# Entry
Amino acid sequence: MPITNILERNAMSFRDEVALVELNPEQAETRRVTWREYELIEPTKTTAYRREITWGVFDEKANRFANALLARGIKKGDKVAILMMNCLEWLPIYFGILKSGAIVVPMNFRYSAEEIRYCMDLSETDILVFGEEFIGRMEEIADQVSKNRLLIYAGSGLCPSFAEDYKELTFECSSMPPYIPLNDDDDAAIYFSSGTTGFPKAILHNHQSLMHAAYTEQAHHHQTRDDVFLCIPPLYHTGAKMHWFGSLLSGSRAVLLKGTRPETILKAASDEKCSIVWLLVPWAQDVLNAIDRGDVKLEDYDLSRWRLMHIGAQPVPKSLIQHWFDYFPDHLYDTNYGLSESIGPGCVHLGVENPHKVGAIGKAGYGWKTRIVDENGVDVPQGEVGELAVQGPGLMTCYYRDPAATAATLKDGWLFTGDMAQMDEDGFISLVDRKKDVIITGGENLYPVQIEDFLSAFAPIKDVAVIGLPDKRLGEIAAAIIELKPDMTATEEEVMEFCRALPRYKRPRKIIFAKIPRNPTGKIEKPKLRATYGASGLVAAQNNG
# Structure
């Protein structure tokens, strides 16, 4: 069943109930929201930074955009890309593309103009919908990408001359569904890999993948119509959207929050009566640090509805969750593991019933299977490190237009993740590290995640990343890049003393105090760190420091 059917069901059953809320408190004083609704649709409620739409309006907007695309010649299997920041228009546009029979192509809002052009070419995008934040980047490439392509502007203010206006395009279109036949095997979406080793790969999924993501999310977190989901990460990423699919399936409200300051997150959870909040590690750590310092006081917020905090997208330090329970002892907690190739979160998850296993990523998720294998694809004995492989209904169809990469990753129906992992005696899987991030020092394998997890328990440390640096004698040595909490200090000697509890071969040989770069989904950008501190980069950094 295509996921568009769920939206139509919600529009029929809960037509006048709120589906989506957009909050933009951190820009309230500098950006006034302007919003003109269609004459045939009930207007949304508007304040300086808060907007909302009902399930009925959501579905009608999706239908209007689908019909607009069809009127512009879009056919089943064509590609329509979205390049927008999180906003109230994002999901109706996404579903309008699906309803037209086209393949939706969400793009990373951090892409440079050249990366946008590259991804449009790779995915064979026919139409690109972009927001006001991207006018400058689109101007750089408009002459190149507008040939035989339509550019649609979905923002406030004047529409650029090289694009058509989204509101004008959809204003007179029918709000009735276009009834394009869709089935589980039809191509639905192209997502892009994070591109940490070069330009990103295009990941093709069918409608079954999207629908299974919804089933998986609700099976894991048990959303009901009473839940309110606070969504902060970018919707272009599979993680945010697939977690929201649980709200879609249950017909419950979601809040799209712009802003990640601790007080912003807590106020949104309080004001909107949120029950489920998905955080990334840095945001969760910032919340704890703000409470520790007294910058925010929990008694100032009504968080009585908040039942579940979950984290995905990167390894979670055990010490962080233990500290979280100090302040939020009644919270359920889950961590979710997934890749864009496995339709985002949930192919492995801890489970809310397993707080005693915090530190592990968990077991195979709903409808999924897992293996841990050696370099020959043979299962390793329990407790040994190997590569994690997953299998389930949410696997990608292929890397679009890249059969070699597809063959290297999809083998006999299993997705080889590139993540090194091990399984304990209870069947719980823990991540050890990315296969490419393993450090080999003097013949010993070092797994940076293990060292990072250990160092994160040192009170002055806000964030930490461990990378390998070249060494003539040992081949590589482990270097710890450490970002300290703003109100705390530490010396190299103090960090080294703390590391004496580690086996000698696991102790970092180099300590560097610097900011840790993370991408929009919270993953540490280790290629940037290697480029900065590897070999000549390390010398330059020391000379500048």
